[in-house]
Design goal:
Blueprint (H helix, E strand, L loop, with lengths): L8 E8 L7 H7 L2 H7 L5 H22 L8 E3 L5 E3 L7 E8 L2 E8 L3 E7 L6 H8 L2 H8 L4 H18 L11 E2 L12 E2 L3 H4 L3 E5 L5 E7 L5 E6 L1
Parallel strand pairs: 1-11
Antiparallel strand pairs: 1-5, 2-3, 4-5, 6-10, 7-8, 9-10
Helix pairs in contact: 5-6
Length: 232
């Protein structure tokens, strides 16, 4: 099955990580030698199984857009370790992946830089210290003005993580160099990139619908997009 994606569409796939659903034979013929080698470096079996299953299911999803078999998918990485598809059959498909505990999300679109982040909501020791070290003054005000600091923290955090992943620089992009907002209307928001106000308008950030107990956000270099959800 080949899935078409329009220019202004974003497809978000939601996947439960269930290691009992995959047979070893399926994995061995689908993952690359590099992926299998990397999986062997995990100390704990559960971590190894989750790594294998994430890569296995990512290949299943992407192959639906690239008109190829999952084992034919090839990947390369930029200088900041962000993966991209290395295949002429994919026609400009860009993607990003995030996972937390037993939940994984994959965001895809055509041509535009994209980032996605999901986090399982949990209490954080020294939440205020973490926020002060990573949030802008505007974001700290949003956090300090709310009674539900844990959920608000993750709403801000996932937006910031999605954005720095979308830029392709990840942790190398200074978290305090931009500011996100929390828009409860369900529409997208623009980040505020300090010293680059024009660039700010090029980006859109949106909170995603996800499973209870999780918060997820998407960032894309576009000011016009529509999100559709899928489950594997």
């Amino acid at each position: 099955m080949n899935i078409e994606i329009e220019d202004n569409q974003v497809h978000v796939w939601q996947v439960r990580i269930d290691t009992s659903s995959v047979y070893p034979k399926d994995i061995s013929i689908t993952l690359s030698e590099d992926e299998l080698e990397r999986s062997g470096k995990f100390k704990f079996q559960k971590d190894r199984e989750h790594f294998i299953l994430r890569h296995y299911q990512l290949r299943l999803i992407l192959s639906k857009y690239c008109d190829c078999h999952p084992h034919e998918m090839k990947f390369r990485y930029n200088s900041f370790k962000k993966p991209f598809i290395f295949s002429p059959k994919c026609k400009g498909i860009k993607f990003n992946i995030s996972y937390s505990h037993d939940f994984m999300v994959v965001g895809l679109n055509k041509e535009k830089d994209i980032g996605i982040d999901i986090e399982k909501v949990h209490e954080i020791h020294d939440l205020e210290t973490v926020a002060v070290n990573n949030f802008s003054s505007q974001e700290l005000k949003i956090l300090n003005d709310t009674l539900d600091k844990t959920n608000t923290f993750f709403k801000i955090w996932t937006r910031k993580e999605a954005f720095i992943k979308a830029t392709g620089k990840g942790m190398y992009y200074p978290l305090k160099s931009f500011c996100v907002n929390i828009n409860s209307s369900g529409s997208y928001e623009h980040p505020v990139i300090f010293n680059h106000p024009i660039k700010s308008k090029l980006w859109g950030i949106a909170e995603l619908n996800t499973s209870d107990g999780y918060i997820a956000s998407l960032a894309i270099k576009s000011n016009k997009f529509q999100i559709s959800y899928f489950q594997l």
